[in-house]
Amino acid sequence: MSGVVVPINKAGSRESASQNNSAAVHSVQSLVELVRGDMEKVNQLILSKTGSQVTMIPQVANHLIDSGGKRLRPMLTIATAQMSGYKGSHHVTLAASVEFMHTATLLHDDVVDNSDMRRGKLAARLVWGNEASVLVGDFLLGQAFRMMVDTGSMGALDVLSHAATIIAEGEVMQLSTAKNLETTEDEYLTVIRSKTAALFGAACEVGPIIAEREPEIISAFRSYGANLGIAFQLVDDALDFGGTSAILGKNVGDDLREGKVTLPILLAYRRGTDDERKFWKQAIEEGKSDDTALKRAMKLLVDHNALADTIARAVHYGKIARDALAPLPAGKHKDALLEVIEFCIERGL
Length: 349
Hints:
mainly alpha, Farnesyl Diphosphate Synthase, two-stranded antiparallel sheet, 17 helices, disordered N terminus
């Protein structure tokens, strides 16, 4: 992923790619290079753990696993373990567990949201059905917990199992906010803290846990991950209207079509006229979200600075993530983790 084809500037308008692609200079490449050796082991473990005598299980699992995701969360587990001075091999096992948890939530999410695309491919539910997607997601969660147990780290098991519970709670909370335009910003942030930030935080926390670092170090990494996760999700919310299918891996405007209430929509709804709020109610609550509605929605989001302000909030959480790492020693790993923050936010600039 190398920049946003339809960027969002600070005034909330959308500009051409040629004007802005040169501005995005950060990437995850430094992180990739630092964790490359261990991530090769993670990928091998992932492949071995998707095996099953039930043919459909590896077919469904690998449909998503092999579809080009960045594997940012397991890379963060590897990097934070390395930065914490860990010398064993359990960080590889935990990184694979984190990726399986993430993949399981994606399979489940696509069923709940009736999504058609995931990472640029047909969602697994459209190929094999909702039942298979849910059950293979459950299989991956089971494998994730088996791998956690294999490490013998009760601390890591506690953190990741707690994250799994929080993610599930977030999924249920999202059901209550779906199509509900009276959702507050605080309520929305609670959902993404649960659905997205919890796994980012846990992925960064288990590394220093198995390295047996001091509580303040563990807390710093957890804060970094959780706030990075919030920033990441807020940018994704903006990109659903200001990005492209190639960047998103799904159709632009899916949140509108699915009746999903995200922060840009909430901001535009609250700031709109009575007529505009009526439009949002028809589009979100009544499902009148055809291409014409999408065009009007995108115009209103720009007119009310909803996209730019969503990115501004992402910048805020990015700064919190950066500050969380401030007390930690300088070095290549710290630099790479800081660059991940900039990369995640630059996707929306």
